[in-house]
Amino acid sequence: MVLFGLLFSATAGSGGPGGQGGPPGLDGSDPVALSLGGYRPAALAVGVLGVLLVTGEHTSGALRVLFAAVPARWPVVLARTAVTAAVSLAVLLPASLAALLAGQAALGDRGVSLGDAGVLRATVGTALYVTAIGLMGAALGWLLRSTAGAVGTLFGVVFLLPVLGGLLPSSWGPDVVRWLPGQAGAGVTEVLPGPDEFAPWTGFAVLCGYVVLLLAVAVVVVRRRDA
C-alpha cells in the first residue's frame, strides 16, 4: 500500500503545472486518494489471507482438533474473527499512515496535512475498510471451506460486481451499485465521497452489516456440519 501510494503520488507530483497556486488537491486529483490508492490491492490481499487462515486450518485438520476441544464451535469462529481483526488493524493503521505521509511528501506543496478536514478519517477509514474485507474473506472461508471458492466469491462480490454495475442504466444503476459491499464502504477511504456514494460512516456501516451477516451465517453453518 505504501509503494502504491508513493508511485501514484510521485507520478502526480512530477506531472503538469497544476501545483502552481490554489489549494492543494484542486489540480484535478485528490492527493489523499493518490496516497492511499493501494488500498484496493491491499484489500484483496488481506481478504485472501482471511480466507487462507480458515481454509488452511480446515485442510490441515487443525479445525477438527479445535472443535473437539470446543464442541460449541462458535467461540472458535468468534475468537478467530477477533484475532484477525486485531492483527489486521495493528498492521494496517500504521501502513495507512505511512502511505499517506510518504505520498504527501512526494506531492510536495500540492499535498495535504493530517490535520486537514477529512484526511485523518480517510486514513483510519482505509485501515478499517481493508480489515472489514479481510473479515469478509474469513467468513466466506468458514462458509465454503474451499480456498478457490471463497477467494473467487470475494473477488466477484467486492471487486467485480461494482465494475459490472457500471453497465447498468444510469437512471437506477448507481443506486444499486452503492449498496454492493465493496462500493458501500469505499467512501470512508475518501476525503470527499462521490455523489453516488453513501456518507463515509454510513457506507462503512453497510459494509459492516454484510460482514456481521456473513459471520452470523457462518456460525450457524459451522455448528451444524462436520468439521
Report mean pLDDT, rounded to a whole number: 86
Q: How many strands appear in the DSSP assignment?
A: 0
- Strand portion, in percent? under 5%
Order of helices and strands: HHHHHHHHHH
Unreliable segments of 5+ consecutive residues: 4-28
Count of helical regions: 10
End-to-end C-alpha gap: 36 Å
Radius of gyration: 19 Å
From the spread of the alpha carbons, the general shape counts as globular
Largest sheet, if any?
none
Secondary structure class reads mainly alpha
How many domains, as an integer? 1
Task: Give the % helix.
Answer: over 70%
Task: Provide structural commentary.
It is a single chain. The chain has 227 residues and is mainly alpha-helical. The protein has one domain. Helices cover 72% and strands 0% of the residues. Helix 1 runs parallel beside helix 5, helix 3 packs parallel to helix 6 and helix 5 packs antiparallel against helix 6. It is globular, with a radius of gyration of 19 Å. The relative contact order is 0.15.
Lay out the secondary structure.
Elements: H1 2-14, H2 31-35, H3 39-60, H4 62-69, H5 74-107, H6 119-144, H7 147-165, H8 173-177, H9 181-186, H10 200-224
Helix pairs in contact: 1-5, 3-6, 3-7, 5-6, 6-7, 6-10
Task: Describe the structure concisely for a colleague.
The protein has 227 residues and is mainly α.
